[in-house]
Design a protein that fits this description.
The structure holds 2 protein chains of 2 kinds.
Chain A: H1 2-14, E1 19-20, H2 27-30, E2 35-36, E3 40-45, H3 51-65, E4 70-74, H4 79-87, H5 93-98, E5 102-106, E6 114-116, H6 123-136, E7 140-144, H7 148-152, H8 156-172, E8 176-182, E9 200-209, E10 212-222, E11 231-237, E12 240-243, E13 259-260, H9 265-270, E14 276-277, E15 281-286, H10 292-305, E16 310-314, H11 319-327, H12 334-338, E17 342-346, H13 354-368, E18 372-376, H14 385-401, E19 405-411, H15 417-420, H16 423-428, E20 431-440, E21 443-453, E22 463-468, E23 471-474, E24 479-480, E25 483-484, H17 487-568
Parallel strand pairs in A: 3-8, 3-9, 4-5, 4-7, 7-8, 15-19, 15-20, 16-17, 16-18, 18-19
Antiparallel strand pairs in A: 1-2, 9-10, 10-11, 11-12, 13-14, 20-21, 21-22, 22-23, 24-25
Chain B: H1 3-12, E1 29-35, H2 40-56, E2 61-67, H3 74-77, E3 85-90, E4 95-98, H4 104-110
Parallel strand pairs in B: 1-2
Antiparallel strand pairs in B: 1-3, 3-4
Helix pairs in contact in B: 1-2
The chains are: A alpha/beta, B alpha+beta.
Chain lengths: 569, 117
């Protein structure tokens, strides 16, 4: 995003002042395109503030990215030493020299070895420089540090006249040049070189505050071009130099309606949308040992499960330690790290200053392009309250502008979260989870509640949670006369409830058994009645059968009688 | 500046086929004068040098003039920064004197032909 605006600006500025891109991320944004093309730029600063590395980066990037070969004239270090020194930044200058994309020349000036007798000029330097430029068709030149000449040559009047001629000559040759100079007392440079080079002046600085050094860069002047005027922190490490533009991304970032899981199902349930909004910022604050990191890692685990990229800035624990600790609560981060979805960036907060951390984070984020970022914990970032606040604001702005979900943990010293968390921080956060120890009945138990969650309804309940072998688990809430019951009070309540339940279920069972018995009794009675009825029926039918037999007998007897009587008749 | 000066300059110019580091007898001085073009400063330097050598090193010196405009690649080797620069290549150690050599005292000190002071 920043680069596109810079490109656009560079193009629009191109008509007025052509610029030579340095390829130093951030710097070309600040200067809207780079250094003035075909002109000398003065880079001044105290010892060890990165002048030489800045200049070398300009050349190396020119040779490798912009097809502009460069000449490095060193007055301080032998070429071999220089090649070795910049190898630590990942620059293979030696092979660039072999490919004739960079030429190096070491001009040794040692006063004790030089006797002066009569007039001279610096044509020798011009010849060497001109020769080096012609050899490789250089477009870029670095003179590091020209001021050594003041110590080596006695006649400063001649020297000043020659330097003036040199800068004019460089412009004539149409090379983009960097001239480095030592910072002087009360002036930009010790020998007043800024008098001769007025097109562009950069000031590098390496300040120590609270025993922490921070490198900063400022564009003191840039004739014919707009430029950022702030002091910008910059980084020098194994990936070269990067300058962090302090400019805020503004509030124009797109919002997202999609919710992402917190990684704890029961916590999702407390949030109206079933999770955090994607691209929102979440603060998890709590005192020591309340489970901030565990919660953060649940979130990370859930994100990785969805196949999203996570960047985890650990300021207090080493990645190995976090991985081990999380394994103990059932979160296995190893596969995510192995598959490249999860990356840990661990650095002690005291290792560099706040701005450096910021610059580093900025670069890592640009580089890794994560979907979710965890900062654990922000409370260990040291510095003035205001500085920390503005630094975090910038990180959050950056993350929001990229649509990255950010989860920040904050260690607070006790009491209410709102007491010890910078209230200004709150306004930056979309969702704020507060973890607290709930102290009662001689126990400390963990409680969680949602202090706020912008743009969604959320539970207002304080929930107790446990960190178990299977991770963070929110427990059922039991409300007692004094609020939510936690710990053994909850357990007691749970026991009481389960006893009651057992009693109730026994009662039911007893009733069921009684009913059963009754049903059996009734059935028995029915069977008895049935049996007596059947007996009666049997008796009656027996009787009827006998009666019929008797009738039959009677009839037959009568017939016999009649016959007998008939015979008599 | 006379035609003779120019001729002397041309005569002393180091040629492509001049051997490097040829054997020089003990006590011989191998001097190289680096200049940038045939400027008055260059000519004056050579004239001054020849004069000093004739006075102090008659018969045991050799002067080569290197015009850096023609052979710029030689500038880095002898760490030439200012011109004219006189380099005493032999006898060791290597010595450098910059300027048009108008101050012969300084030149003699520089060439270790006279102790300073």
């Amino acid at each position: 995003m920043l680069s596109t605006t810079a490109d656009a600006t560079a193009r629009s500025a191109g008509s007025t002042l052509p610029k030579a891109a340095t390829g130093i991320s951030g710097f070309d944004d600040v200067t809207l395109g780079g250094l003035p093309e075909g002109r000398p730029t003065l880079v001044c600063g105290g010892p060890g503030c990165g002048k030489t590395l800045f200049a070398m980066t300009f050349l190396v990037n020119g040779a490798t990215q912009f097809e502009e070969p460069g000449v490095f004239i060193s007055f301080e270090e032998a070429s071999e030493d220089l090649v070795q020194n910049v190898a630590s930044l990942g620059y293979d200058v030696q092979s660039l020299v072999e490919q004739k994309r960079i030429a190096m020349d070491y001009v040794r000036v040692e006063k004790s070895e030089i006797e002066e007798s009569g007039d001279y000029d610096l044509d020798g330097l011009f010849v060497r420089l001109g020769y080096a430029i012609d050899q490789i068709g250089a477009k870029r030149v670095v003179l590091d540090t020209l001021e050594v000449l003041f110590a080596g040559l006695g006649d400063t009047d001649v020297l000043r006249a020659e330097l003036r001629r040199l800068f004019a000559w460089l412009k004539e040759r149409n090379v983009t040049a960097i001239i480095t100079a030592e910072r002087g007392e009360g002036a930009l440079t010790r020998y007043g070189l800024e008098e001769y080079i007025s097109d562009c002046v950069l000031l590098l600085d390496n300040r120590v505050e609270n025993q922490i050094t921070t490198r900063r860069l400022r564009v003191v002047k840039y004739r014919g071009s707009a430029h950022g005027t702030n002091e910008y922190p910059f980084l020098i490490d194994d990936q070269g130099i990067s300058v962090l533009p302090v400019t805020s991304a503004g509030l124009s970032h797109a919002t997202n309606d999609e919710a992402v899981s917190t990684g704890v199902a029961s916590l999702d349930g407390m949030l109206g949308k079933g999770g955090f909004y994607r691209g929102s910022s979440i603060l998890v604050s709590g005192t020591a040992g309340t489970g901030k990191t565990s919660l953060a890692n649940h979130f990370v685990d859930a994100a990785c499960r969805r196949g999203e990229r996570c960047l985890y800035f650990a300021f207090e624990e080493s990645p190995a330690q976090i991985v081990r600790n999380m394994r103990s609560i059932g979160i296995d981060l190893e596969p995510w790290i192995a598959s490249g979805l999860l990356r840990f960036e661990a650095a002690r907060p005291s290792l560099f200053g706040l701005e450096m951390h910021l610059a580093k984070m900025h670069r890592e984020i640009e580089h890794f392009k994560p979907d979710a970022v965890v900062l654990d914990p922000i409370s260990s970032l040291r510095g003035e309250q205001g500085e920390v606040h503005s630094a975090l604001l910038r990180v959050i702005d950056l993350l929001k502008s990229r649509g990255t979900t950010a989860l920040l943990t904050n260690l607070i010293s006790g009491g209410h979260a709102t007491d010890s968390t910078d209230v200004g921080m709150s306004s930056l956060m979309d969702t704020w989870l507060s973890l607290a120890h709930i102290e009662s009945n001689g126990e400390r138990n963990r409680g969680i509640y949602i202090l706020k969650s912008r743009g969604m309804s959320h539970s207002n309940q304080v929930r107790e949670f446990e960190i178990t072998k299977a991770g963070v688990q929110l427990l059922k809430t039991y409300l007692g006369p004094n609020g939510v019951l936690t710990g053994s009070a909850r357990v007691a309540r749970e026991a009481a409830e389960s006893a009651e339940q057992i009693r109730r279920s026994e009662e039911g069972n007893r009733k069921r058994r009684e009913l059963e018995r009754r049903r059996a009794a009734v059935k028995r009675q029915i069977a008895e009645l049935q049996a007596s009825l059947e007996a009666e029926e049997d008796e009656v039918s027996e009787w009827l059968t006998q009666d019929e037999a008797r009738e039959q007998t009677y009839l037959s007897d009568r017939d016999v009688m009649a016959t007998r009587r008939g015979a008599a008749e | 500046m006379t035609q003779a000066d120019f001729d002397a300059f041309d005569a002393a110019l180091l040629n492509e086929d001049d051997g490097e580091g040829e054997a020089v007898e003990d006590g011989h001085y191998n001097l190289r004068l680096y200049v940038a073009g045939k400027t008055p400063k260059s000519i004056a330097a050579l004239r001054n040098l020849q004069k000093i050598c004739e006075e102090h090193l008659a018969g045991r010196y050799r002067i080569e003039v290197v015009d850096l405009l023609e052979r710029p690649q030689l500038a880095a080797g002898d760490q030439i920064l200012a011109v004219p620069t006189l380099v005493r290549r032999l006898p060791p150690p290597l010595k450098r004197i910059i300027g048009n050599l108008s101050d012969s005292e300084r030149v003699l000190v520089g060439l270790d032909l006279r102790k300073e002071g």
